[in-house]
């Protein structure tokens, strides 16, 4: 796989932005198994980081490059700071950046498939929220979405004492207005329940994760509204990279319909 660190000026953020990208190559190095390259443009996974991380973290903490190589998959990893992939009430337009500007820039720079059936998003924790927000806001764009230990009930987080509550007020503004807004995944589930095209959802969490209770609420609601949901719970797993490395390794073939 080719690894690129792409720096460009973001119109949405009005600042230089950095994105990590891995792209398929015709041949791989020793010890890397890869699918045979065909004439089709690479399928694309937008892979999102969590609250304490940045665009580099998936490459540093997992073997995502090896997993993508086996499927000739391009992976795009942006940085959004503590924004929750949202246009911040007091800050920057990270939702516009991730949902509109970033895909346009990546397709301008690289030869990538733009077909919905070849486009995917996934993330961990805050990034799981971001991936679901992308897929539920624009279901016509994606074939599958993955959330690993995701913050799937953002309104629930505002009721808990946390060092991050001031940041949530900065990002979302009036926290009482979160339920039923376009930042509420439960609202988006219902809003797009009748759409003709909806991505498959993969939702996973460890049973000892501090966000597990959110999953126990979110998954049944998604199923009740008719979304195609695959839910995985790992007994005693917590909020950590061993679990997320396992999950991205499983998710890539799952999202492509190539389960081992």
Unreliable residue runs: none
Structural class, judged by helices and strands?
A: alpha/beta
Calculate the terminal CA-CA distance, rounded to whole Å: 21 Å
Strand order of the largest sheet: 1-2-4-3-5-6-7-8
Return the average pLDDT rounded to an integer.
94
Largest sheet: 8 strands, mixed
SSE arrangement, N to C: EEEHHEHEHEHHHEHEH
Mass-distribution shape: globular
- Strand runs, count: 8
Give a written overview of the molecule:
This protein has nine helices and eight strands. The protein has 260 residues and is α/β, with parallel strands linked by helices. The chain has an eight-stranded mixed β-sheet with strand order 1-2-4-3-5-6-7-8, with helices on both faces. The longest helix has 16 residues, at 94-109.
Layout of helices and strands:
Blueprint: E1 2-10, E2 15-23, E3 43-48, H1 57-61, H2 64-69, E4 73-77, H3 94-109, E5 119-124, H4 126-137, E6 144-148, H5 154-157, H6 165-172, H7 185-191, E7 200-206, H8 212-224, E8 229-234, H9 241-255
Any key phrases for this structure?
20% strand; alpha/beta; 260 residues; 9 helices; eight-stranded mixed β-sheet
What's a quick, concise take on this entry?
By secondary structure, the chain is an alpha/beta fold.
